[in-house]
């Protein structure tokens, strides 16, 4: 399973390949351009977080991980090896949909190991100015996200979704990232969006969008849910809890993850009967999975 594209922030060309991985290994990135150096998609490796979430281990960077990790959670993939030959994942169309399609085409396989969930037992609320993020106990994974963006097409949007039962694929996966024409030059000057184009993000103008139509009328807030799901994947397990966010961003999402992991009284690890871990299957999965099971 392969694709190639450019990184949104670095503009770097990158080829990516997703391979099956043994039960219990989680999601691991491998830099094929750096002797196969591996960086696990876990909170401990979170690096700079501003416009995207990046991982770093011993100085080796994997940038903009959130959309692919979001697709993995949405599809129920627990284990995968992701090979890239550069420092940033491809942005493709700016959503998680191309990743979802790519993984579905290769197939998904159950592994003979019970899936371990991180079940939230106590609430945790974090505030930073007018930004808010919290998690509350629940038996399933659900998200409620609000944004308030001063633009005639956006304003205040709230989106609530129960992420099990296929709703991620239907309501979240296709929502694209967005940026505004007005901020463009400043961001380009700072080297933050070298790979941005009308093909990989919604471009907002002063009173509309340049590259319509939108995929959903509230595509913006849905993309925030997509990002949140991808950042929460850094817990290393699927979560059972209700996450509420208001004007949060990558920095707050990943701060929530590290606070949860640090305080073991907030959660317990549980299995749900009949729920097994899943991995990506692919044409060469047989060989790779031989050692997996
Ligand atoms: Zn995003």
Written account of the structure:
- The longest helix has 14 residues, at 219-232.
- This protein has seven helices and 17 strands.
- With 293 residues, it is an alpha+beta fold.
- 23% of the residues lie in helices and 37% in strands.
- A hairpin with a 6-residue loop joins β1 and β2 (13-19).
- It is globular, with a radius of gyration of 18 Å.
- The structure holds zinc ion.
- Zinc ion binds at residues 66-67, 177, 223, 227.
Helix and strand pattern: EEEEEEEHEHEEEEEHEHEHEHEH
Helix content: 10-25%
Give the helix tally.
Answer: 7
Any low-confidence stretches, pLDDT <50, length ≥5? 283-293
Which class best fits the helix and strand makeup?
A: alpha+beta
Largest pleated sheet: 7 strands, mixed
Shape: globular
Cα-atom radius of gyration: 18 Å
What average pLDDT do the residues reach? 91
Measured between the Cα atoms of the first and last residue, the distance is: 21 Å
Could you tell me which ligands this complex binds, including any ions or cofactors? Answer: zinc ion
Strand count: 17
| Strand content range | 35-45%
Q: What descriptive keywords fit this protein?
A:
293 residues; alpha+beta; five-stranded mixed sheet; 7 helices; 17 strands; 23% helix; globular; binds zinc ion
């Amino acid at each position: 399973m392969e694709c190639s594209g450019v990184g949104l922030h670095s503009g770097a060309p990158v080829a990516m390949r997703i391979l099956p991985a043994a039960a219990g290994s989680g999601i691991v990135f491998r830099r094929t351009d750096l002797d196969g150096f591996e960086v696990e998609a876990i909170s401990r490796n979170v690096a700079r977080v501003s416009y995207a979430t990046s991982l770093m281990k011993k100085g080796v960077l994997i940038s903009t991980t959130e959309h692919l990790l979001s697709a993995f959670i949405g599809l129920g993939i627990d284990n995968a090896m992701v090979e890239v030959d550069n420092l940033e994942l491809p942005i493709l169309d700016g959503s998680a949909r191309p990743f979802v399609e790519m993984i579905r085409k290769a197939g998904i396989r159950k592994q003979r190991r019970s899936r371990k969930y991180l079940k939230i037992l106590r609430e945790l609320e974090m505030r930073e100015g007018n930004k808010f993020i919290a998690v509350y106990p629940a038996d399933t994974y659900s998200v409620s996200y609000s944004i308030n963006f001063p633009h005639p097409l956006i304003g205040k949007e709230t989106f609530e979704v129960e992420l099990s039962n296929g709703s991620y694929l239907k309501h979240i996966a296709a929502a694209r990232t967005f940026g505004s024409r007005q901020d463009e030059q400043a961001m380009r000057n700072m080297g933050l969006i070298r790979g941005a184009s009308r093909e990989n993000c919604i471009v907002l103008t002063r009173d509309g969008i340049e590259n319509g139509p939108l995929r959903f009328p509230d595509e913006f807030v849905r993309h925030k849910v997509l990002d949140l799901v991808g950042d929460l994947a850094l817990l290393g397990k699927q979560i059972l809890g209700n996450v509420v966010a208001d004007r949060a961003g990558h920095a707050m999402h990943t701060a929530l993850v590290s606070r949860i992991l640090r305080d073991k009284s907030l959660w317990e690890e549980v299995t749900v009967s009949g729920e097994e871990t899943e991995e990506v299957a692919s044409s060469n999965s047989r060989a790779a999975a031989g050692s997996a099971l």
